[in-house]
Amino acid sequence: MDCSLVRTLVHRYCAGEEECVDSRTVYVGHREPPPGAEAYIPQRCPDNRIVSSKYTFWNFIPKNLFEQFRRIANFYFLIIFLVQLIIDTPTSPVTSGLPLFFVITVTAIKQGYEDWLRHKADSAVNQCPVHFVQHGRLVRKQSRKLRVGDIVMVKEDETFPCDLIFLSSSRVDGTCHVTTASLDGESSHKTHYAVQDTKGFHTEEDMDSLHATIECEQPQPDLYRFVGRINVYSDLNDPVVRPLGSENLLLRGATLKNTEKIFGVAIYTGMETKMALNYQSKSQKRSAVEKSMNVFLIVYLCILISKALINTVMKYVWQSEPFRDEPWYNQKTEAERQRNLFLRAFTDFLAFMVLFNYIIPVSMYVTVEMQKFLGSYFITWDEEMFDEETGEGPLVNTSDLNEELGQVEYVFTDKTGTLTENNMEFKECCVEGHVYVPHAICNGQVLPAAAAIDMIDASPGAGGREREELFFRAVCLCHTIQVKDGDEADGPRKSPDSGRRCVYISASPDEVALVEGVQRELTPRDIKQLPQSHTARKRLGFTYLRLKDNYMELQNRGNDIERFELLEILSFDSVRRRMSVIVKSATGEIYLFCKGADSSIFPRVIEGKVDQIRSRVERNAVEGLRTLCVAYKRLIQEEYEGICKLLQAAKVALQDRERKLAEAYEQIEKDLILLGATAVEDRLQEKAADTIEALQKAGIKVWVLTGDKMETAAAACYACKLFRRNTQLLEVTTKRLEEQSLHDVLFELSKTILHCGASLTRDNFSGLSADTQDYGLIIDGAALSLIMKPREDGSSSSYRELFLDICRNCSAVLCCRMAPLQKAQIVKLIKFSKERPITLAIGDGANDVSMILEAHVGIGIVGKEGRQAARNSDYAIPKFKHLKKMLLVHGHFYYIRISELVQYFFYKNVCFIFPQFLYQFFCGFSQQTLYDTAYLTLYNISFTSLPVLLYSLMEQHVAMDTLKRDPALYRDIAKNALLRWRVFIYWTFLGVFDALVFFFGAYFMFENTTVTSNGQMFGNWTFGTLVFTVMVFTVTLKLALDTHYWTWINHVVIWGSLLFYVVFSLLWGGIIWPFLNYQRMYYVFIQMLSSGPAWLAIVLLVVVSLLPDVLKKVLCRQLWPSATEKVQTACLVSGPPLGSHPLASL
């Protein structure tokens, strides 16, 4: 048999041949193309089964074990356990095997249960019934049997079983409405459009007769992007080629609304659907605490190796004397004498490693994971962070970064929808230099007849009137709004005069505000109060009605219906910052209407009153209004035909479609005539200014990154108190760079700031002083591009470093005219600067996703621009004001709690193992254990784990209200203050001191004293039990002394854990257990407690151990108190409790 044929078959059916090409061909209804057309090459695609589960019945145990032992800590303890099994070690393999088995088993049960639930959910989805079109009739099958190319019928309120190309609808206009709440959280209805040549196919027989092929890109996870084309074959003519985009794609998981039924062809199935491809998680972020914990673990591993090495060397030094190495009562065999010295030394080294390995606790990882997981619920349960207006509460997408909320140094925030409400209100429009204000009455008073304000009837003569009406028509036509009646979605349209208003739905609130603004009416009361000369017309006068059969209908001032055929839509994108429509009037005239930012419209204008309109735009921007410019041009038929060809070539391209469309748009949108400009107001969110002020008091620098023009953004920054009246603004903008070089501008600003003694560091900057001069920096996107661009001489970083030096010494920074990727660049620039500060990015729209993913902590706001930001974030909150409590309260508590947890775990394990190390000097380095096997096993699992877990969940060192009232307390924990080397060394030496007290206190008491009533001496196990008892009580009481917030739960857990230790010891040594071969602890604990000196030793040693830490805290509070300690003292003096309820701040 030919080997090449075998290789081809294996490659096709095992590797998947379709992965080697950039596109796929789908045969609608599995019908082959007609003879003479393209070759019929069936491609192998997966079925429609969804598999979200991770394991199967057969691979669960090996795969789960493999994943768990990929963690270094688990692998380390596995090696220790294997060493105990292989060589003769001083401790039983149970001592390390049981804790490891406990951790592995608990984790496996949790993951197995979660995967079982996923299996159940997958089975329910895969067995859901779906209607197929087969041989001209409907056939009902299970969803998992659906294949690419099948024609599917979906009814209203059903979810789409796979990704479909929309072929036809029960609606006459070939549209359907869907909701994508399960995909991106957006509950608004979105309109999708059927293929133009198939929207007339309404029956199963029609669909069965359809002869078409679809060429499209291979599956990719972007929900908002799709590139393809459909070839529709007829009997006589060449195939009709139509472009396919995201508006023709119905995604699996979306739901059909307000449409009786639709037909579609399966294009992506099963795990190739966009919903399934989005199952994959985002890149893992690691907190500063986790990084510190890993470094500390490495330090303790080095200590462990050092201990083992020292004991190994000391053992052979000790045994260098013959009578010590081979005493008369323990003679070696000949085989033992012949054994290699280096092999014996290595075996002893491993044995000492096993003996001291408990200094690295496996249970710490489990405790930290539980603390993060359980602690994350305290945010979602916080009723103060629930927004009644939207019905939304906070959301935690990852619990790995809880403590990072307490370490934030830079906050990067979007403006629109984040600092502002994204609730647009139409304020005015300027046409041909004349201003039109829809509100004639303000606060019950008639507006003064200012020179710059013209009412509707003050416009110029016939020529001006024509431009005026053309402007209003442009506003009514240049958008992507959906119209829905207030009562029924598909019913007849009614004009505003009939008493029923149109409901406008759009992805952009600006569009709705503009369309509603140009139809706004004056109330009868307003008309009555206006002067007689101002009552000629009641409203600006143009009302957009609907899009029907590709015709846009609007109602003019005379209540006449005008119909415009919609020829093309040039969609908005954040790079062009504009959109256009091409329409044809009833008289046959073809217009291109263009709407966009002034920076993208003015360079393309060749006619119009540019200077007057530019002046008005700049004035509105200074007042904080959002402005858009409107322009147009008339097209002759030949021009339009050329545009159609240009757009068609770009739309049907499968490769680089976005680039080709952008080039086509650039050629089309030029030589425009300027009509006018609009202004809408976006009010600040409630308490946005208070939140920014609190963050600045906490030492956090706030940067605003926005796509708005400079004047608009600066006005908003003044309104939200980011800039103050005494703030000196420094600019690095395109306008200034036209006058000076970038080098000169940066060095001039550097000289202004750095050499005027106004350096504002995190430690001395409050942002609130009215006496000191502070600086604010404004930079735009074009200037940033120049700063980030490598210099011609090859020194790529000099401008960046100079720019960073300027930014560090500014109280606030405003970045305007920013593209989405530039926002991420700014965050990355600060994130990787030499100080490596912790960054947080917050935004509400898709354009903020890049910076949210780039920052250490990403927070999404559930806003009016959808939920893309919230879906891609680490945390989501309803409003910007909730950021204050999330950082200053929750973040503060999270960091305090987990820092104490980590330091305490290392401390108690130093206390645990260092006496074992000291004991070797008194037992001839024989690897004899000081503690019983049960104590070795249960110390970290049972005796000391629960109190610290509860502490790490409930501790409040100061009251929640105090943290909100005094944001400066956030500075006390800045820069990972509680996990610095100084603090780590203090905890380590405290553990060493306590271990010395435990060991030598018990040793000197035992040395020459008979301590039992019958004159018997305490033995080895009694000595170890006494040391262990003092240790358990000391480390538990140490935690009790550190606890500031006591509840009944704390009392139960702390005193209950001590009681459990005592009861366990009594039972372990007081009963003969039949499953044990020997019981070396039999009656040991009871005998120890029967001795008065032992009781005295326990009390004295516990007091002596705790005394230095108590003295240190008292002296530091009196001599060098921190801000937090001052607040704690004030609370104790004034008397209020730290919390009104045990779970008040949780």
What descriptors fit this protein?
1146 residues; 10-stranded mixed beta sheet; 43% helix; elongated; disordered C terminus; membrane; metal-binding; ATP-binding; ATPase-coupled intramembrane lipid transporter activity
How would you describe the shape? elongated
Which structural class do you get from the secondary structure elements? Answer: alpha+beta
Q: Distance between the terminal alpha carbons, to the nearest Å?
A: 71 Å
Strand content: 15-25%
Please state the average pLDDT score.
80
Number of strands: 36
Share of helical residues: 40-55%
Cofactor: Mg(2+)
Domain P-type ATPase A: 130-191
Binding site for ATP: 414-416, 511, 572, 595, 626, 706-708, 817, 823, 847-848
Domain P-type ATPase C-terminal: 870-1122
Description:
The structure is a single chain. The chain has 1146 residues and is α+β, with helices and mostly antiparallel strands. It contains 38 helices and 36 strands. The strands form 7 sheets. Strands 16, 17, 22, 23, 24, 25, 26, 27, 28 and 29 form a 10-stranded mixed β-sheet that branches. It has a 9-stranded mixed β-sheet with strand order 14-36-35-34-15-30-33-32-31, sandwiched between helices. A hairpin with a 2-residue loop joins strand 16 and strand 17 (434-436). GO terms for molecular function: ATP binding; ATP hydrolysis activity; ATPase-coupled intramembrane lipid transporter activity; magnesium ion binding. Residues 130-191 form the P-type ATPase A domain. Its cofactor is Mg(2+).
